[in-house]
Amino acid sequence: MEKRSNWVPIESDLDEKYAKELEVAVKAVHVACLLCQKVQENLIFNGNEDVQAKDDNSPVTIADWSVQATVSWILSEAFGPENVSIVAEEDISALSKPTAANLLSSIVTTVNNSLSTAATFNIQPPPTPLNPTQVLESISRCNSTGGPTGRFWVLDPVDGTLGFVRGDQYAIALALIENGQVVLGVLGCPNYPVNKEWLNYQNGYRRMVSRLSKSGLGSWDGKGCVLYAEKGSKKAWMQPLVNGDEGFVWPNSARRVTVSSIDNPVLATFCEPVEKANSSHSFTQGLAHSVGLRNEPLRVYSMVKYAAIARGDAEIFMKFARAGYKEKIWDHAAGVVIIEEAGGVVTDAGGRRLDFSKGMYLQGLDRGIIACAGASLHEKIMRAVDASWNSSSL
Length: 394
Ligand SMILES: Nc1ncnc2c1ncn2[C@@H]1O[C@H](COP(=O)(O)OS(=O)(=O)O)[C@@H](OP(=O)(O)O)[C@H]1O
Ligand SMILES: [Mg+2]
Ligand SMILES: [Mg+2]
Ligand SMILES: [Mg+2]
Hints:
- Helix content is about 35%, strand content about 20%.
- By secondary structure, the chain is of the alpha+beta class.
- The radius of gyration is 20 Å and the shape is globular.
Protein backbone atom coordinates (compact mmCIF):
# COMPACT_ATOMS: atom_id res chain seq x y z
CA MET A 1 0.00 0.00 0.00
CA GLU A 2 1.43 3.36 -0.95
CA LYS A 3 1.94 5.98 1.71
CA ARG A 4 -0.19 9.02 0.90
CA SER A 5 1.75 11.45 3.10
CA ASN A 6 3.50 13.03 0.13
CA TRP A 7 0.25 13.90 -1.66
CA VAL A 8 -0.73 17.53 -1.20
CA PRO A 9 -3.89 19.45 -2.03
CA ILE A 10 -3.92 20.76 -5.58
CA GLU A 11 -4.21 24.41 -4.49
CA SER A 12 -0.72 24.45 -3.04
CA ASP A 13 0.72 24.37 -6.53
CA LEU A 14 -1.26 27.14 -8.06
CA ASP A 15 0.71 30.19 -9.05
CA GLU A 16 -1.36 33.36 -9.41
CA LYS A 17 -0.89 33.99 -13.10
CA TYR A 18 -2.47 30.88 -14.60
CA ALA A 19 -4.28 29.57 -11.53
CA LYS A 20 -7.74 29.45 -13.10
CA GLU A 21 -6.49 28.15 -16.46
CA LEU A 22 -4.59 25.35 -14.76
CA GLU A 23 -7.47 24.38 -12.52
CA VAL A 24 -9.97 24.28 -15.39
CA ALA A 25 -7.55 22.41 -17.66
CA VAL A 26 -6.79 19.76 -15.03
CA LYS A 27 -10.48 19.21 -14.36
CA ALA A 28 -11.29 19.04 -18.08
CA VAL A 29 -8.60 16.40 -18.55
CA HIS A 30 -9.93 14.35 -15.64
CA VAL A 31 -13.41 14.45 -17.20
CA ALA A 32 -11.90 13.41 -20.54
CA CYS A 33 -9.99 10.52 -18.95
CA LEU A 34 -13.18 9.11 -17.45
CA LEU A 35 -14.95 9.49 -20.78
CA CYS A 36 -12.18 7.60 -22.56
CA GLN A 37 -12.08 4.82 -19.99
CA LYS A 38 -15.76 4.13 -20.58
CA VAL A 39 -15.45 4.19 -24.37
CA GLN A 40 -12.33 2.00 -24.30
CA GLU A 41 -14.05 -0.51 -22.06
CA ASN A 42 -16.96 -0.70 -24.51
CA LEU A 43 -14.62 -0.98 -27.43
CA ILE A 44 -12.45 -3.73 -25.98
CA PHE A 45 -14.84 -5.78 -23.91
CA ASN A 46 -18.08 -5.35 -25.85
CA GLY A 47 -16.63 -4.58 -29.26
CA ASN A 48 -19.48 -2.21 -29.93
CA GLU A 49 -17.86 1.09 -30.74
CA ASP A 50 -16.95 2.38 -34.15
CA VAL A 51 -13.38 2.82 -35.28
CA GLN A 52 -13.25 5.04 -38.36
CA ALA A 53 -10.34 5.58 -40.73
CA LYS A 54 -9.28 9.12 -41.60
CA ASP A 55 -8.00 10.16 -45.04
CA ASP A 56 -4.43 9.27 -44.02
CA ASN A 57 -5.73 5.87 -42.84
CA SER A 58 -5.12 6.66 -39.17
CA PRO A 59 -7.87 5.61 -36.74
CA VAL A 60 -10.37 7.93 -35.07
CA THR A 61 -13.11 6.92 -32.64
CA ILE A 62 -16.06 8.45 -30.88
CA ALA A 63 -13.69 9.12 -27.96
CA ASP A 64 -11.53 11.46 -30.08
CA TRP A 65 -14.52 13.58 -31.16
CA SER A 66 -16.31 13.37 -27.81
CA VAL A 67 -13.26 14.50 -25.83
CA GLN A 68 -12.69 17.37 -28.23
CA ALA A 69 -16.33 18.48 -27.85
CA THR A 70 -16.28 18.08 -24.07
CA VAL A 71 -13.00 19.90 -23.43
CA SER A 72 -13.95 22.65 -25.86
CA TRP A 73 -17.30 23.09 -24.09
CA ILE A 74 -15.70 23.18 -20.62
CA LEU A 75 -13.09 25.77 -21.67
CA SER A 76 -15.72 27.93 -23.37
CA GLU A 77 -17.99 27.83 -20.35
CA ALA A 78 -15.14 28.72 -17.99
CA PHE A 79 -13.59 31.58 -19.96
CA GLY A 80 -16.32 32.64 -22.42
CA PRO A 81 -16.29 31.39 -26.02
CA GLU A 82 -14.96 34.75 -27.25
CA ASN A 83 -11.81 34.28 -25.13
CA VAL A 84 -11.07 30.71 -26.11
CA SER A 85 -9.03 29.76 -29.14
CA ILE A 86 -8.14 26.09 -29.59
CA VAL A 87 -5.86 24.20 -31.98
CA ALA A 88 -6.95 20.56 -31.96
CA GLU A 89 -6.56 17.42 -34.01
CA GLU A 90 -10.12 16.55 -35.03
CA ASP A 91 -12.67 18.24 -37.28
CA ILE A 92 -16.28 17.55 -38.22
CA SER A 93 -15.90 16.68 -41.92
CA ALA A 94 -16.62 12.98 -41.37
CA LEU A 95 -19.53 13.77 -39.01
CA SER A 96 -21.36 16.09 -41.33
CA LYS A 97 -22.11 13.40 -43.92
CA PRO A 98 -25.69 12.05 -43.94
CA THR A 99 -24.29 8.52 -43.47
CA ALA A 100 -22.73 9.58 -40.16
CA ALA A 101 -26.00 10.08 -38.29
CA ASN A 102 -25.47 7.10 -35.97
CA LEU A 103 -21.89 8.04 -35.30
CA LEU A 104 -22.90 11.60 -34.43
CA SER A 105 -25.67 10.34 -32.20
CA SER A 106 -23.18 8.14 -30.26
CA ILE A 107 -20.90 11.14 -29.83
CA VAL A 108 -23.74 13.34 -28.57
CA THR A 109 -24.72 10.66 -26.03
CA THR A 110 -21.11 10.21 -24.92
CA VAL A 111 -20.58 13.96 -24.49
CA ASN A 112 -23.79 14.40 -22.50
CA ASN A 113 -23.06 11.41 -20.28
CA SER A 114 -19.62 12.80 -19.63
CA LEU A 115 -20.83 16.33 -18.84
CA SER A 116 -23.51 14.98 -16.53
CA THR A 117 -20.75 13.50 -14.34
CA ALA A 118 -18.65 16.66 -14.47
CA ALA A 119 -20.29 17.90 -11.27
CA THR A 120 -17.83 15.58 -9.48
CA PHE A 121 -15.21 18.14 -10.47
CA ASN A 122 -17.34 21.17 -9.59
CA ILE A 123 -18.10 21.76 -13.24
CA GLN A 124 -21.65 22.92 -13.81
CA PRO A 125 -23.18 20.66 -16.49
CA PRO A 126 -25.27 22.26 -19.26
CA PRO A 127 -28.83 23.05 -18.11
CA THR A 128 -30.21 20.79 -20.84
CA PRO A 129 -28.30 18.11 -22.74
CA LEU A 130 -26.33 19.44 -25.72
CA ASN A 131 -27.99 18.79 -29.07
CA PRO A 132 -26.09 17.54 -32.16
CA THR A 133 -25.66 21.07 -33.52
CA GLN A 134 -24.11 22.25 -30.24
CA VAL A 135 -21.79 19.24 -30.13
CA LEU A 136 -20.68 19.85 -33.72
CA GLU A 137 -20.13 23.50 -32.85
CA SER A 138 -17.98 22.58 -29.87
CA ILE A 139 -15.81 20.34 -32.03
CA SER A 140 -15.49 22.76 -34.92
CA ARG A 141 -14.81 25.74 -32.66
CA CYS A 142 -11.34 24.21 -32.22
CA ASN A 143 -10.25 25.63 -35.55
CA SER A 144 -7.42 27.92 -34.50
CA THR A 145 -4.19 27.50 -36.44
CA GLY A 146 -1.94 28.80 -33.66
CA GLY A 147 0.94 31.15 -34.41
CA PRO A 148 3.47 33.44 -32.73
CA THR A 149 1.21 35.83 -30.84
CA GLY A 150 -1.68 35.72 -28.41
CA ARG A 151 -3.05 32.89 -26.37
CA PHE A 152 -4.42 29.56 -27.57
CA TRP A 153 -5.04 26.10 -26.23
CA VAL A 154 -3.64 23.00 -27.92
CA LEU A 155 -5.58 19.76 -27.60
CA ASP A 156 -4.93 16.20 -28.68
CA PRO A 157 -8.21 14.63 -27.53
CA VAL A 158 -6.85 11.10 -27.79
CA ASP A 159 -3.15 10.78 -28.46
CA GLY A 160 -2.13 7.28 -29.45
CA THR A 161 -5.53 6.39 -30.89
CA LEU A 162 -3.95 3.17 -32.13
CA GLY A 163 -3.06 2.23 -28.55
CA PHE A 164 -6.54 3.25 -27.46
CA VAL A 165 -8.28 0.91 -29.91
CA ARG A 166 -5.87 -1.89 -29.02
CA GLY A 167 -6.76 -1.59 -25.33
CA ASP A 168 -3.33 -0.20 -24.56
CA GLN A 169 -1.77 3.13 -23.57
CA TYR A 170 -3.07 6.50 -24.78
CA ALA A 171 -3.17 10.05 -23.46
CA ILE A 172 -5.27 13.20 -23.42
CA ALA A 173 -3.07 16.23 -23.92
CA LEU A 174 -4.00 19.85 -23.27
CA ALA A 175 -1.59 22.78 -23.29
CA LEU A 176 -1.85 26.55 -23.19
CA ILE A 177 0.44 28.56 -25.45
CA GLU A 178 1.04 32.26 -25.01
CA ASN A 179 3.12 34.25 -27.47
CA GLY A 180 4.65 31.09 -28.85
CA GLN A 181 5.63 29.60 -25.47
CA VAL A 182 3.95 26.62 -23.82
CA VAL A 183 2.90 28.00 -20.43
CA LEU A 184 0.79 25.10 -19.14
CA GLY A 185 0.69 21.41 -19.92
CA VAL A 186 -1.77 18.77 -18.68
CA LEU A 187 -1.43 15.13 -19.64
CA GLY A 188 -4.08 12.57 -18.77
CA CYS A 189 -2.84 8.99 -18.87
CA PRO A 190 -5.86 6.78 -18.05
CA ASN A 191 -3.96 3.49 -18.29
CA TYR A 192 -0.72 4.57 -16.61
CA PRO A 193 -1.12 3.75 -12.93
CA VAL A 194 0.49 5.92 -10.28
CA ASN A 195 2.81 3.02 -9.51
CA LYS A 196 4.97 1.93 -12.36
CA GLU A 197 4.40 -1.84 -12.29
CA TRP A 198 3.26 -1.79 -15.90
CA LEU A 199 6.85 -1.11 -16.95
CA ASN A 200 7.70 -4.70 -16.09
CA TYR A 201 5.44 -5.79 -18.93
CA GLN A 202 7.33 -4.51 -21.92
CA ASN A 203 5.01 -3.57 -24.78
CA GLY A 204 2.15 -5.47 -23.20
CA TYR A 205 -0.20 -3.38 -21.14
CA ARG A 206 -3.12 -5.77 -21.54
CA ARG A 207 -0.89 -8.69 -20.56
CA MET A 208 -0.02 -6.81 -17.40
CA VAL A 209 -3.64 -6.16 -16.48
CA SER A 210 -4.58 -9.78 -16.97
CA ARG A 211 -1.46 -11.07 -15.11
CA LEU A 212 -2.05 -8.76 -12.15
CA SER A 213 -5.70 -9.69 -11.86
CA LYS A 214 -4.88 -13.43 -12.07
CA SER A 215 -2.07 -13.16 -9.54
CA GLY A 216 -4.41 -11.54 -7.03
CA LEU A 217 -1.73 -8.98 -6.25
CA GLY A 218 -4.50 -6.52 -5.79
CA SER A 219 -2.29 -3.53 -6.52
CA TRP A 220 -3.95 -2.99 -9.87
CA ASP A 221 -7.02 -0.86 -9.50
CA GLY A 222 -7.23 0.29 -13.09
CA LYS A 223 -6.54 3.90 -12.27
CA GLY A 224 -4.34 6.16 -14.28
CA CYS A 225 -2.85 9.54 -13.57
CA VAL A 226 -2.95 13.16 -14.66
CA LEU A 227 0.32 15.10 -14.86
CA TYR A 228 0.62 18.86 -15.14
CA ALA A 229 3.11 21.69 -14.96
CA GLU A 230 3.30 25.43 -15.32
CA LYS A 231 6.24 26.90 -17.20
CA GLY A 232 8.92 28.40 -14.99
CA SER A 233 7.60 26.82 -11.77
CA LYS A 234 10.34 24.15 -11.77
CA LYS A 235 7.71 21.75 -10.51
CA ALA A 236 5.68 19.07 -12.23
CA TRP A 237 2.78 17.32 -10.52
CA MET A 238 0.86 14.09 -10.71
CA GLN A 239 -2.64 13.31 -9.50
CA PRO A 240 -4.20 9.87 -9.32
CA LEU A 241 -7.11 9.50 -11.70
CA VAL A 242 -10.30 9.43 -9.73
CA ASN A 243 -13.18 7.15 -10.32
CA GLY A 244 -16.25 9.33 -10.85
CA ASP A 245 -18.58 7.13 -8.82
CA GLU A 246 -16.58 6.64 -5.62
CA GLY A 247 -18.15 9.51 -3.75
CA PHE A 248 -14.96 11.40 -4.40
CA VAL A 249 -14.89 15.11 -3.58
CA TRP A 250 -12.80 17.57 -5.61
CA PRO A 251 -10.14 18.98 -5.23
CA ASN A 252 -7.84 16.08 -5.83
CA SER A 253 -4.43 15.75 -4.19
CA ALA A 254 -1.17 15.92 -6.11
CA ARG A 255 2.39 14.73 -5.75
CA ARG A 256 5.54 16.21 -7.26
CA VAL A 257 7.28 14.22 -9.94
CA THR A 258 10.90 14.57 -10.99
CA VAL A 259 13.02 13.03 -13.68
CA SER A 260 15.42 10.17 -12.98
CA SER A 261 18.94 10.99 -11.79
CA ILE A 262 20.53 8.40 -14.08
CA ASP A 263 22.92 10.06 -16.50
CA ASN A 264 24.84 7.00 -17.63
CA PRO A 265 23.38 5.62 -20.89
CA VAL A 266 24.44 2.12 -19.86
CA LEU A 267 21.88 2.23 -17.05
CA ALA A 268 19.23 4.21 -18.88
CA THR A 269 15.96 3.05 -20.44
CA PHE A 270 14.73 4.71 -23.60
CA CYS A 271 11.22 4.88 -24.91
CA GLU A 272 9.99 5.30 -28.43
CA PRO A 273 6.80 4.90 -30.52
CA VAL A 274 5.39 1.40 -30.91
CA GLU A 275 4.92 1.75 -34.66
CA LYS A 276 8.01 1.54 -36.88
CA ALA A 277 6.12 3.76 -39.31
CA ASN A 278 6.18 6.59 -36.76
CA SER A 279 9.84 6.42 -35.78
CA SER A 280 12.83 4.47 -37.04
CA HIS A 281 13.47 1.56 -34.70
CA SER A 282 16.58 0.52 -36.62
CA PHE A 283 18.19 3.93 -36.13
CA THR A 284 17.50 4.00 -32.40
CA GLN A 285 18.66 0.39 -32.06
CA GLY A 286 22.03 1.27 -33.64
CA LEU A 287 22.30 4.35 -31.49
CA ALA A 288 21.44 2.42 -28.32
CA HIS A 289 24.16 -0.07 -29.17
CA SER A 290 26.69 2.71 -29.78
CA VAL A 291 26.18 4.25 -26.31
CA GLY A 292 26.03 0.91 -24.53
CA LEU A 293 22.35 1.06 -23.59
CA ARG A 294 21.58 -2.34 -22.11
CA ASN A 295 17.89 -2.10 -21.34
CA GLU A 296 15.28 -3.11 -23.88
CA PRO A 297 13.50 -0.13 -25.43
CA LEU A 298 10.18 0.69 -23.92
CA ARG A 299 7.77 0.93 -26.82
CA VAL A 300 4.70 2.79 -25.64
CA TYR A 301 1.85 4.42 -27.52
CA SER A 302 1.24 8.14 -27.10
CA MET A 303 2.56 10.91 -24.92
CA VAL A 304 2.66 8.48 -22.02
CA LYS A 305 6.33 8.38 -23.11
CA TYR A 306 6.68 12.02 -22.01
CA ALA A 307 4.93 11.14 -18.75
CA ALA A 308 7.33 8.21 -18.19
CA ILE A 309 10.36 10.52 -18.49
CA ALA A 310 8.80 13.20 -16.25
CA ARG A 311 8.00 10.59 -13.59
CA GLY A 312 11.48 9.10 -13.66
CA ASP A 313 10.29 5.73 -14.99
CA ALA A 314 12.55 6.00 -18.08
CA GLU A 315 15.39 8.33 -19.01
CA ILE A 316 15.32 8.90 -22.77
CA PHE A 317 12.58 9.44 -25.37
CA MET A 318 13.48 9.55 -29.04
CA LYS A 319 11.31 9.99 -32.10
CA PHE A 320 12.76 10.03 -35.60
CA ALA A 321 9.88 10.21 -38.05
CA ARG A 322 10.41 9.49 -41.74
CA ALA A 323 11.71 12.41 -43.83
CA GLY A 324 8.85 14.66 -44.90
CA TYR A 325 6.58 13.92 -41.93
CA LYS A 326 5.64 17.14 -40.16
CA GLU A 327 5.21 16.81 -36.39
CA LYS A 328 2.09 18.48 -35.01
CA ILE A 329 2.20 20.75 -31.98
CA TRP A 330 -0.58 18.84 -30.18
CA ASP A 331 1.55 15.68 -30.11
CA HIS A 332 4.24 17.41 -28.01
CA ALA A 333 3.24 20.69 -26.32
CA ALA A 334 1.90 19.35 -23.01
CA GLY A 335 4.61 16.69 -22.70
CA VAL A 336 7.48 19.10 -23.31
CA VAL A 337 6.59 21.58 -20.55
CA ILE A 338 5.94 18.75 -18.08
CA ILE A 339 9.34 17.14 -18.75
CA GLU A 340 11.14 20.49 -18.59
CA GLU A 341 9.56 21.46 -15.30
CA ALA A 342 10.27 17.98 -13.91
CA GLY A 343 13.96 18.66 -14.60
CA GLY A 344 14.43 17.19 -18.07
CA VAL A 345 15.57 18.54 -21.42
CA VAL A 346 13.68 18.33 -24.73
CA THR A 347 15.14 19.49 -28.05
CA ASP A 348 15.39 18.49 -31.67
CA ALA A 349 18.49 16.62 -32.78
CA GLY A 350 20.23 19.95 -33.42
CA GLY A 351 19.82 20.91 -29.76
CA ARG A 352 17.14 23.53 -30.41
CA ARG A 353 14.03 23.75 -28.23
CA LEU A 354 10.85 22.82 -30.09
CA ASP A 355 9.20 25.85 -31.68
CA PHE A 356 5.47 26.06 -30.97
CA SER A 357 5.07 29.49 -32.54
CA LYS A 358 4.82 28.58 -36.21
CA GLY A 359 1.27 27.28 -36.52
CA MET A 360 0.03 23.73 -36.17
CA TYR A 361 3.33 22.10 -37.15
CA LEU A 362 6.71 22.05 -35.43
CA GLN A 363 8.44 23.83 -38.31
CA GLY A 364 12.17 23.55 -38.81
CA LEU A 365 12.60 20.46 -36.68
CA ASP A 366 16.11 19.10 -37.10
CA ARG A 367 15.85 15.30 -37.72
CA GLY A 368 13.88 14.24 -34.66
CA ILE A 369 12.99 14.77 -31.03
CA ILE A 370 15.22 13.88 -28.09
CA ALA A 371 13.98 14.16 -24.51
CA CYS A 372 16.24 13.19 -21.63
CA ALA A 373 16.15 13.08 -17.87
CA GLY A 374 18.90 15.70 -17.59
CA ALA A 375 21.35 17.89 -19.48
CA SER A 376 24.33 15.56 -19.18
CA LEU A 377 22.50 12.51 -20.53
CA HIS A 378 20.96 14.68 -23.25
CA GLU A 379 24.40 15.86 -24.34
CA LYS A 380 25.62 12.25 -24.63
CA ILE A 381 22.61 11.16 -26.67
CA MET A 382 22.89 14.18 -28.96
CA ARG A 383 26.53 13.34 -29.66
CA ALA A 384 25.62 9.74 -30.39
CA VAL A 385 22.84 10.81 -32.78
CA ASP A 386 25.30 13.01 -34.67
CA ALA A 387 27.83 10.20 -34.85
CA SER A 388 25.27 7.66 -36.14
CA TRP A 389 23.28 9.90 -38.45
CA ASN A 390 25.48 9.94 -41.53
CA SER A 391 25.83 6.20 -41.63
CA SER A 392 22.07 5.70 -41.27
CA SER A 393 19.68 5.51 -44.16
CA LEU A 394 17.38 8.20 -42.73
N1 LIG B 1 3.97 8.67 -40.18
C1 LIG B 1 4.02 9.22 -38.98
N2 LIG B 1 5.20 9.52 -38.42
C2 LIG B 1 5.27 10.04 -37.21
N3 LIG B 1 4.20 10.33 -36.44
C3 LIG B 1 3.00 10.06 -36.94
C4 LIG B 1 2.83 9.50 -38.22
N4 LIG B 1 1.53 9.35 -38.45
C5 LIG B 1 0.89 9.80 -37.35
N5 LIG B 1 1.77 10.24 -36.44
C6 LIG B 1 1.51 10.86 -35.15
O1 LIG B 1 2.01 10.04 -34.14
C7 LIG B 1 1.11 10.09 -33.04
C8 LIG B 1 1.29 8.85 -32.24
O2 LIG B 1 2.62 8.84 -31.86
P1 LIG B 1 3.18 7.73 -30.95
O3 LIG B 1 4.50 8.15 -30.44
O4 LIG B 1 2.15 7.41 -29.94
O5 LIG B 1 3.35 6.50 -31.96
S1 LIG B 1 2.93 5.00 -31.72
O6 LIG B 1 1.48 4.91 -31.84
O7 LIG B 1 3.46 4.56 -30.42
O8 LIG B 1 3.63 4.26 -32.79
C9 LIG B 1 -0.23 10.21 -33.66
O9 LIG B 1 -1.09 10.85 -32.75
P2 LIG B 1 -2.66 10.44 -32.68
O10 LIG B 1 -3.20 10.63 -34.08
O11 LIG B 1 -3.19 11.45 -31.72
O12 LIG B 1 -2.75 9.03 -32.20
C10 LIG B 1 0.04 11.06 -34.89
O13 LIG B 1 -0.16 12.42 -34.70
MG1 LIG C 1 -1.47 12.58 -31.22
MG1 LIG D 1 -5.08 12.24 -31.43
MG1 LIG E 1 -4.95 10.85 -34.79
